[in-house]
Amino acid sequence: MTASTRWRPGAAMVLAGGFGKRMMPLTKDIPKPMVVLKGRTLIDHVLDRIAAAGVERAVVNVHYQADKLEAHVKKRERPKIVISDERQELLDTGGGVVNALPLLGREPFLIHNSDSVWIEGVGSNLERLFSVWDPDRMDSLMLLASAATSLGYDGSGDFAMDEHGRLSRRGEQQLVPFVFTGVSIAHPRLFEGAAEGVYSMNRLWDAAIDNGRLFGIRLDGLWMHVGTPEALVEAERWIEREDVT
Questions:
Q1: Which CATH number fits domain 11-244: 3.40.50.300, 3.30.200.20, 3.90.550.10, 3.40.50.150?
Q2: What's the distance, CA 64 to chain centroid?
């Protein structure tokens, strides 16, 4: 199978509706996805990467400063932008994706946080994610980064991964090596019977873990969770250092 015929999702869900409270005061008058990192907004970093990976449509949910964000992303030609309107109520990650399912179609799709950026290693991490995806075994496939070497993360990790790529949650008082980057592929079956309303994707991922159908691959490169003004400054330093190298 050639690169041009290899499977890739036709749509991506870009989660962009949050308040960005930890990014204040930069988010006083703009939504967090419009904060600028090295000359481009965070959401443009994400949408550029999605477009480069051949994903044709991006469904972007909006809530805080929704008019500004919608006007900004609608200027783009690639990927094609579709707005999932959450102006009345922010539905969190799980409820937000369920609300957008009619816009995403019936095939597996990409989910991408609007503040998840990274410096690539060898090749494209999204292309690797697409190549590993196996709908027969997986309800979701996550892109995971090393908790020890990621920028903007200081926790105990999110997941452990076995030799087959199957994931399990970090136990209480446990350290695990991988942190979720906010990027995954989801099969529509993950949402079968899922309720509408406000709730996290964690509820659905836990069900996938119970069924042995949550998998992951390790990101090749340097992941940056740009969640605070301090992390934004450090991310710019990382990118400058990489550019020099």
A1: 3.90.550.10
A2: 18
pLDDT for 1: 46
Give the distance between the most distant pair of CA atoms in the chain. Answer: 50
At residue 245, the pLDDT reads 54
Which of 105, 58, 59, 90 has its CA nearest to residue 199? Answer: 90
pLDDT digits (tens, 9 = 90+) for 85-94: 999 999 999 9
Residue 221's DSSP bridge partners are 120
How many helices and strands in the chain, by DSSP H and E?
6, 13
- Element (H or E) spanning 141, and its range? strand 140-146
Q: What is the mean pLDDT of residues 62-76?
A: 97
pLDDT reported for residue 242? 80
